Amino acid sequence: MSDIESMTSDWLSRIEGAADLGALEAERVAALGKQGAVTQLLKTLGGMTPEQRQAEGPRIHGLREKVSDAIAARKAALEAAELDRRLATETLDMTLPISTGAQGSVHPVSQVMDELAEIFADLGFSVATGPEIEDDWRNFTALNIPESHPARAMHDTFYFGEDKAKDGKRMLLRTHTSPVQIRTMTSQEPPIYIIAPGRTYRSDSDATHTPMFHQVEGLVIDKGIHLGHLKWTLETFLKAYFERDDIVLRLRPSYFPFTEPSVEVDVGFTMQNGRRVLGGSDGWMELLGSGMVHPRVIAACGLDPNVWQGFAFGCGIDRLAMLKYGMDDLRAFFDADLRWLRHYGFRSLDVPTLSGGVGA
Ligand code: DAH
Predict the structure, then answer these.
(1) Checking DSSP bridges between strand 126-127 and strand 133-134, what pairing results, if any?
(2) How far apart are CA 326 and CA 344, in angstroms?
(3) Where are the domains of the chain?
(4) Which CATH number fits domain 108-343: 3.40.50.11540, 3.90.230.10, 3.20.20.100, 3.30.930.10?
(5) Ligand 1 in contact with 290 (CB < 6 A)?
(6) What is the pTM of this model?
(7) Which atom of ligand 1 is found nearest the CA of 291?
(8) Which ligand 1 atom lies nearest to the CA of residue 314?
(9) What would the pLDDT profile of 104-139 be if each residue is shown by its tens digit?
(10) Which protein residue's CA is at the shortest distance from atom 6 of ligand 1?
């Protein structure tokens, strides 16, 4: 066997033995690369006599051709084997049933409602509910907001048509959870200790207002209730909710038709790295409205205001969620964007408990 013939069979068996694409590339460089053995052999043609070149030329070129054909064939075989391997391992059986694992998450508003129920249950409050389509009397009149009252204009109410009128008054989407106060006082004997979380509606939309939003109402009706009970209850609630002992409240005189006296409650914050963090009292932000239930509201519900007194408060739940969990645009709450829901949602087993931490 001549040198060229033995070289050819040598290279062909090396190429055939390359176990993967990396090894094959190493053989290609060793044979056909700039410094490769076959390339070096081709270079020797330049130094040959014409006769030698005529004899050796076709043999050396033949060697180069066989080597490069063998490399191409081996490459195709290795690529086909790799594709077969992937097809065998990366299968997707379209006939299998879909995953039954938990897919959804608990919306922050639902989570906060659960947290509120847990905190107030510990203080002896139960949860009351009312319909979102409400009548004029319970949403306004019984709450000491008569027809001519300017507070009605402030509520940006969604009204139903005349065909849905009751006692000559159109039905409406409740503008606050306060009508649940009326429903509870007219259906239950005092003493009353309730919170009423739920959906409320006003024709309003910007970064901090959506046409549908959530409120929680609180109502206590008992004997000998005074403003001190209100302040203690709110302080206890907010310390438990924000899970901080340094929550400071500021009560400011205010006005609501259904309370007398009325107080607006601010909560103190401190600045940390340019962000407002609740606790301390470097600054104040408005959090909720409250007051002693107006004697006229108690009387409208058929109770004697000389016997029964109480306090009430109303607070935005979405705002409570934003302050605790750090969202800054209310509209995103109701966009149903899966990425937002996955980021801010809670696992279904994250049930708030006072012992485990309500914000667990
Ligand atoms: N209903 C009021 C509103 O939506 C909030 C409110 C203020 C509720 C004071 C109360 C209260 O019970 O005492 O603006």
Answers:
(1) unpaired
(2) 9
(3) 3-87, 108-343
(4) 3.30.930.10
(5) yes
(6) 0.71
(7) 13
(8) 8
(9) 899 999 999 999 999 999 999 999 999 999 999 999
(10) 314
